[in-house]
Amino acid sequence: MAAAQRIVMENCSIATVDADDTEYATGYVVLAGNRIESLGAGRAPEGLADVVRRIDATGHLVTPGLVNTHHHFYQWITRGLATDHNLFDWLVALYPTWARIDEPMVRAAARGSLAMMARGGVTTAMDHHYVFPEGSGDLSGAIIGAARDLGVRFTLARGSMDRSEKDGGLPPDFAVETLDAALAATEATVNAHHDTSFDAMTQVAVAPCSPFSVSTELLREGAELGRRLGVRLHTHGSETVEEEKFCHELFGMGPTDYFESTGWLGEDVWMAHCVHMNDSDIDAFARTRTGVAHCPSSNARLAAGIARVPDMLAAGVPVGLGVDGTASNESGELHTELRNALLVNRLGAHREAALTARQALRLGTYGGAQVLGRAREIGSLEPGKLADLVLWRMDTLAHASIADPVSALVLGAAAPVTASFVNGRQIVADGRLLTADEDEIAHSTRQEARRLAEIAARA
Ligand SMILES: [Zn+2]
Hints:
Protein name: 8-oxoguanine deaminase
Largest sheet: 9 strands, mixed
Pfam families: Amidohydro_1 (PF01979)
Radius of gyration: 21 Å
EC number: 3.5.4.32
Structural class: alpha/beta
Bound molecules: zinc ion
GO molecular function: 8-oxoguanine deaminase activity
Oligomer: single chain
Number of helices: 14
Keywords: Hydrolase
Helix content: 25-40%
Distance between the termini: 59 Å
Shape: globular
């Protein structure tokens, strides 16, 4: 076997986000093939063979690549609509448009979502896709293909909805699948695309949408399917007070008890939002090691509330960060969520004791890897882990006078990305994607957004 080619970066600050939060004020990182080979303080070891590139990273902070744990890519082409609504009113306003999506629209929206995140330091993304109109084409294949083209590590959470208006749910009747069709298509997607290898670029999770858009049977059978196939489970939970009321009215219990009764708590589950959780809900998540995707900007945009992240972390709940769909977070960037997670939680009950800058960085990296079930492979900079990392530029006007680089990254302006590596391959240089033409993506997303608006207006 040919020796792995090495890339050496030196003279940078490094935040490893390992178990001890090890940091180096000035250090080096050596990549060998798609792995991190070594890192530490000072200069890289002398005499390394097969070095194909040396990067003088003076003025940079190196961190693990950011991991996004909740998103809906298709919403990239329905941004800026229903901007003053709460969740339920917003959903009812948008479902009729969303139900008209087709494969070219979903492909363009996925490329837009992925491009925006990648140039902001995301190296692992996920898409919770749950709208599959009849005859709309191979939407899962289009999304997975977009992630592969752009070179971003990816989990497709194959979503589904089967509780429409006629069954007391929120989506219109024509926007949902049947129980059997949803389960069969989800299983086929896992079989076609889920990769179990250490350096997998594509994984699939089973992901019924939410308690108010899926039947109890779909939740229960979805959990059984995921466990039979050995893949993870994802859904929305405890997002708003309206959802809590809905669960009490329909099921006679709150969302967390309902999830537990349908098999939806466990170390193979992660749930988006979890805003309205009481102490016993948090205990249940901690006891079962159920993960949380914290989405502070979306929760603010939809006036959902502030998730109790400090209490979750204190109880031992794995927590990652999520952009959420860009119809409720138009920026579509994850690096700004580090800042928003810290700021929003300091407005909550714990005030200044809520989150530190380092905890915010951990949520966006290692915490994300944990909830996606990939903490062995990614999420921290350690020898043997996959080479997913970002060089943040810290010596320009925006950051040069901020005392500490981690504080600069989390509290300062969105930091420029000089280089981002996924699986040892550079996908971003000086803030621009290397794997696709951003202007072409911008153009096609604009066109597909217009086409969707026209089709929805005619319907
Ligand atoms: Zn969501």
